[in-house]
Amino acid sequence: MINHFGSPGAAWEASVKDLSGAPGIGDEGPEGLVRRRSLLNPEQEIDRLQSLGINFVCYTDPDYPENLREIYDPPPVIFLKGLLKSADNLGIAVVGARKASPYGLVVAEKLAKDLAAVGVTIISGMARGIDSAAHKGALAGGGRTIAVLGCGVDIVYPRENRRLMDEIIDRGAVISEFPPGTAPEPWRFPVRNRIISGLSRGTVVVEAAERSGALITADFALDQNRDVMAVPGNVVNILSRGTHRLIKQGARLVEGAGDVLDELGVEKLFPVQETAGESRLKMSKEEEALYSLLSLDPVALDELIDRSGFLPQKVMAALMYLEIKGLVRQMPGKFYVRTGKKAFPG
Predict the structure, then answer these.
(1) How far is CA 291 from each of CA 148, 303, 321, 341, rounded to the nearest angstrom?
(2) Which CATH code for domain 272-345?
C-alpha cells in the first residue's frame, strides 16, 4: 500500500474509492479498513506506547535491523523495549526444546556465553528451556541478546521469566511485531519464528523433537538463505531426533562456539585488508597484545593471562578470535602457538 500510494501518510488518508484499487487490503475490503481506521488515533497510540516505555521501529526507518529487512516478509513495524544496535547484525539464533534435558540446557548456555563473549548477539524466543538458557548464557558472557516474543512486549511470557526479561531489556532488547496487549496465543509463536531466524546470520538448534517450533525456525532460516547448524545429542533421547535429522540433511554439526564462528566465515566476521599486494587480517589491541606474546613454542593460557594483564574472559575471547582467524592454534593442555598466517595490528 505504501508503494501504491507513495507514502504512509497518503495510504492512511486514502478514501474508500482510492483503496478499492490498492493491493494488500485484506478480507475486510476498503470499507472495513476505513471503519477500523476511524477507531484509531496515531497520536494517542504514540502517547500510549511512551507511557508503557515501548519504542517502535518502522520498516522504512534507517535503524530497522539490516538482516530482517532482507527477508521475504519482514514485519512493517517492530515494537521493542531496550535498544537495537548495528552490532546486532552479527547475530546468531539459538533455539530448541521447551522441555529440554539437563545436557541441552548446559550446552545452550555455554554456547551462547562463548559466542556473546566474542561479540555475537544471541537471538532467541524467551520460551522455557533452551531459549531461556541461551539468553542467560549471553548475559553471563557479558554480551547482547534479543528476545522475540509471540505476544506484546508489555506481557511477560512465561511468567517466571520476568527477571530474565528485565535483564534482557537492560543488555539488549525484547521485540515483537504484535502490538502491546496482544495475548500469547499458540498460532503467534510459529509466526514470530521467522523473525528470530531473520534477525540472525545463522540458526543453531539445540535439542528438538521431530516436529517442533525449533525446526520451524530452521526451515525459515533455510528459506531466508541463512546458515543452519545443530548440536548432536544422545541417540536414545527423543529430543535428539530433530537435530540429528538436520545434521543428516547437511546442517553444520556444532560442538562449540568455534564451529559456529567458522561456519559464518572469517571474511564475514573480520575485515581483510590488502597491503603490499597481500591479504592480511586485522587484529584488535587485545589480540595484538596476545599475539605478540606467542611464538612457535607453546605458551600456557595461565602465562598469557599473567603476562598480558587482561581479565581471563578478555584473554579467552581474544584467543578465540585469533583461532577463528587462523592466526593461533590451541594445543593440548591449553597451550597456544602461532600459525604461519599473516596479520597486522588493527
Answers:
(1) 38, 13, 11, 12
(2) 1.10.10.10
Rounded Cα gap, residues 165 and 174, in angstroms = 7
In 3D space, the residue among 62, 176, 199 whose CA is nearest the CA of residue 121 turns out to be 199
Q: Which ranges in the chain are annotated with CATH 3.40.50.450?
A: 81-264
pLDDT tens sequence for the chain (346 residues): 888 998 888 988 999 999 988 887 877 788 998 998 999 998 999 999 999 999 999 998 999 999 999 999 999 999 999 999 999 999 999 999 999 999 999 999 999 998 998 789 999 999 999 999 999 999 998 899 999 999 999 999 999 999 999 999 999 999 999 999 999 999 999 999 999 999 999 999 999 998 889 999 999 999 999 999 999 999 999 999 999 999 999 999 999 888 998 888 755 566 555 555 455 667 778 888 999 999 889 999 999 999 999 988 889 888 888 887 778 888 888 899 998 766 655 5
Q: Where in the chain is the domain with CATH 1.10.10.10?
A: 272-345
With residue 148 as reference, give the H or E element that holds it. strand 145-148
pTM of the entire predicted model: 0.82
Nine cell digits for residue 5: 500510494
Q: CA end-to-end span of the chain, whole Å?
A: 46
Q: What span, in angstroms and rounded, lies between the C-alpha atoms of 193 and 212? A: 11
> Which residue, chain included where needed, has cell 475490503?
29
Q: Which of 19, 34, 92, 84 lies closest to 261, judged by CA?
A: 92
> What span, in angstroms and rounded, lies between the C-alpha atoms of 101 and 231?
13
**Architecture (CATH level 2) of domain 81-264:** 3-Layer(aba) Sandwich (3.40)
The backbone region for 183, taken as left when phi is positive above 0, alpha when psi lies in -120 to 50, beta otherwise, is beta
Q: Count CA atoms within 13 Å of residue 321 on its CB side.
A: 26
